[in-house]
Amino acid sequence: MTFRALPRRQHDKAERAPKATAAPSLRRRLTLLLLLAVLLTALIQGVVTWRAAHVETEALFDAQMERTALSLTGGVAASVLGSESAAPVPGEPDQIIQIWRADGTMLYRSPSRRLLPPQAMIGFSNVRAGGDPYRVYTLETPIQVVQVAQSEAARDRAVGRLAVRAVLPIALLAPVLMLIVWWVVGYTLAPVDRLRRVLAARAAGDLAPLPTAGLPAELRPLVLEMNGLLQRLESAWRALTDFTGDAAHELRSPLAALRLQVQSLQRAGDAEARQVATERLLTGVDRATRLIEQLLTLARQEGAPETSSEAPVDLAPLASSAVAALQAEADRRAVAVALAGDATVPVRGSADALAVLLRNLLENALRYAPEHGQVRVTLRAAAAEAGAWLRVEDSGPGVAPEDRLRVLDRFYRAPGSRGHGSGLGLAIVQTVAARGGAAVEVGASADLAGASFTVRWPARAAIKG
């Protein structure tokens, strides 16, 4: 019996999957902007060139008309004017030439069906002859009036041809500029493409810094920030790997002990032996549960963000609550727990994380304080330039100077340590303090003769009372 519904559902699900939105391309955007700038510049230059060519050509034609009129004054014979030499010059706009005597009779008129009005304005003017517009230059002398006219349509055609010749190089240059822009953009963004290829070729676990040689100044800060991120990721990955290995190692012993205790319970022959085996098994279960809880707490605190910028938290009520929660254990072992210091000690941080810090410090002190011993918690608020601090002291054996740098490490227990601790409590304290911008100092109690653990907040993370 064959089922084909699952592949079909997977196919339908794939069809219903939303399509990824195309990311904006920096290369495309930069190229389009530069091309638009080139086209706009070419258009403006073409319009300016066209207008300048039009104005200059019109002025050139006007000057030509003026020179022609001047050349026809000064006693030029009508027979000469009537010759073929008076015909328009090839390639120039069609011209009409008329010469009038002072009494108003026509002396000469070039071959044309158009007749200019005899009373035209002296100098340049625009008239209509035969229904067509003409540009006319009229020159008056004591004996005659000379009129030279050019067809506006012919002038416009000539101006258009000259303007096209002036604009044509710009129009031909624009595509060349576009190709240059395309190449320049690709060449400029080549380092980005090389960086992309370097990242694409990397293995998933390769967190080595990216090369910075040959990078432009604009990309170097970005790559340096990426290298910083890679370094932090490598540190976090190494810490996670170490944590996993240490946790597996530390869990192996409690689990093996639980297995032995279960086997002892199975082999117990009488009720008294079973009772003893059961109590040992429960103790082992409690120890394993405590270890797992501490592992989870440490993992949560290491993954939490830094809290030095959060709202103020008062350490005094947190310390009172921690002492009250462990008072029963202290009474059972006849350990005197004292809470001293300022009534209000505000610091910046997470209330839950600080409660974890206080509980682990107190549990550590109670674990190593002897029966009928002492534990003291002291709180001081920030004053002047000094930050707030918290100190937990006990009357136990203390921490040897050579172990004070390592006692805050995960799973580390000093040689000769008593009790059944896992070596995680002080590591949790160190993690919470670091996340809140504080530092942990390990020393010796001045009057209780045992260990002293001081957590100091800098002035920027503490709030003056």
Structure in a nutshell:
The chain is an alpha+beta fold.
Overview of this structure, please?
The chain is of the alpha+beta class. The protein has three domains: 26-73 and 88-188, Beta-Lactamase; 205-303, Helix Hairpins; 312-456, Histidine kinase-like ATPase, C-terminal domain (Heat Shock Protein 90, 2-Layer Sandwich), CATH 3.30.565.10. The protein is built from eleven helices and twelve strands. A hairpin with a 6-residue loop joins strand 11 (439-444) and strand 12. Helix 7 (271-303) runs parallel beside helix 11, helix 8 (315-325) packs across helix 10 (351-368) and helix 10 (351-368) packs antiparallel against helix 11. It is rod-shaped, with a radius of gyration of 50 Å. Mean pLDDT is 79; it is low at 1-15 and 77-93.
